[in-house]
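Sharing a chain and its predicted structure for anyone who wants a worked example. Both blocks are below, sequence first, tokens second.
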Amino acid sequence: MLFAPETTELSFRHGDDVLVGDLVRPPWPGPYPAVVFVEGSGPGGRDQREWQTRLAAAGFASLAYDKPGSGASTGDWTRQSMTDRADETLAGVNALRARSDVHAGAVALIGGSQGGWVAPLAASRSPAAVAAVVSVSGPGVGVVAQEEYRLGHQLTATGFTADDARQALALFHEQIDRVRAGDDPAAVHAAQARWHDAPWYALLAGTSPASIAFLAGIAEHDPEPALAALRCPLLAIFGADDVQVPVGASVRALDRILVDARHTDHTIVVFPGADHGIRVRGARAPGFDELVVTWLQHRLSHRRGYSAPDR
């Protein structure tokens, strides 16, 4: 039999925005446990490549949607705060929970990179709606600490010099400090014009007035309060060779916060030799897919009215 998951375009509202994405589900009758993908930084789209097919084969429905102002979605992601992103995520969760082909008590989040900050925040804001969280390369440290690490490591790993990294870091702090002090992001961007043609400039998080404004708006985000308030199971996955996220510091922070909060079900996994996308030499790290699927099946099978499929 040819396996062909069913795909339906699904839209939902968050405030004045209409978010549009793909709902992918198994080709057999539901109801299914479900997953909402939480995108990382940047514009972001609904394309999760083979991930949604893999989840459908395991019995899950999944929703991946275009971020505001991207693809078919209205709005502007650069005007969002972390709380906006979390509430938007919950709007997607509730859109799934309202469907008759989804187990309302078995909807999880998979957040990648910046989405690894957003997913626990969303779950902490609505414990009854989110059954589990998978964080993939989600930093356990705050925005400024993560960006400092990324600029220092990603630039040198890409072939730029330590002086290039120091200059990029100086521009990053200048952007944050000036916008926080009340300067117009457009003026801040213009003041850095001499660096716009530098080969490394495109690797900054803030390369336009809009992205500088967004970065300054989220710079004070601290993941600790949301993690300390988290009540659902958490799986946090990292790649040991990630040059964008401080893996060691993130693992230590997550472990400390969750243990201190007496969180009873968290698993932290680091894949050796894997990068930010949990890839080894361009391919998904062996065991990654199986880990996520089996972990979700085990956690969601304990939710009322759902048993893991015997397939």
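Comments welcome. The chain is about 40% helix and 20% strand.
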